[in-house]
Amino acid sequence: MDSFSSPSSGSSPKFSTDDIMTQLRTQLEQAYAEEFLETVRGKCFDKCITKPGSSLSGSESSCISRCIDRYIEATGIIGKALFNQR
Amino acid sequence: MDPSSMNSPELQNLLAQEKQKAMISEMISKLTSACWDKCITGSPGSKFSSSEANCLTNCAQRYMDMSLIIMKRLQQ
């Protein structure tokens, strides 16, 4: 995990709790976004690019687009299922 | 009062909350990946069929059931 960057002003860095938490949340969000991107890339490559040609076909492109939408939707469904237990 | 104290109870509390949120986020991420593989077998459509959507829901809930069984078993 990245270390926190220090404030640019002042010779003795003093972090407030707010500063620390803001930086933490920002870095967490970035990490989640990267992880999500990597996962979607993998899933949609598997589903949509079954026989790589010399360029992306129209059907491959629309498959990718649908795949991204479905994966985002799936994430929502799983989230809801976990917290709306019977 | 030292605002940069890493040992402040307030900070520790906020960190604990963020850790909890992170664990939940990771669980959702892993489960979505696993359940996608189990449930979305064909090419992605412009919407989920009801069987695909139900499968995803079931997948998450059965995983939690299983998790409970495993914990109970390991506590014996």
From TrEMBL, chain A:
Membrane-protein topology: Peripheral membrane protein
GO MF entry, a single one: metal ion binding
One of the GO biological process terms: protein transport
Translocase among keywords: no
Compartments where located: Mitochondrion inner membrane; Mitochondrion intermembrane space
Keywords: Chaperone, Disulfide bond, Membrane, Metal-binding, Mitochondrion, Mitochondrion inner membrane, Protein transport, Translocation, Transport, Zinc
Function, in words: Mitochondrial intermembrane chaperone that participates in the import and insertion of some multi-pass transmembrane proteins into the mitochondrial inner membrane. Also required for the transfer of beta-barrel precursors from the TOM complex to the sorting and assembly machinery (SAM complex) of the outer membrane. Acts as a chaperone-like protein that protects the hydrophobic precursors from aggregation and guide them through the mitochondrial intermembrane space.
Written domain comment of the UniProt record: The twin CX3C motif contains 4 conserved Cys residues that form 2 disulfide bonds in the mitochondrial intermembrane space.
Protein name according to UniProt: Mitochondrial import inner membrane translocase subunit
Record organism: Salvia splendens
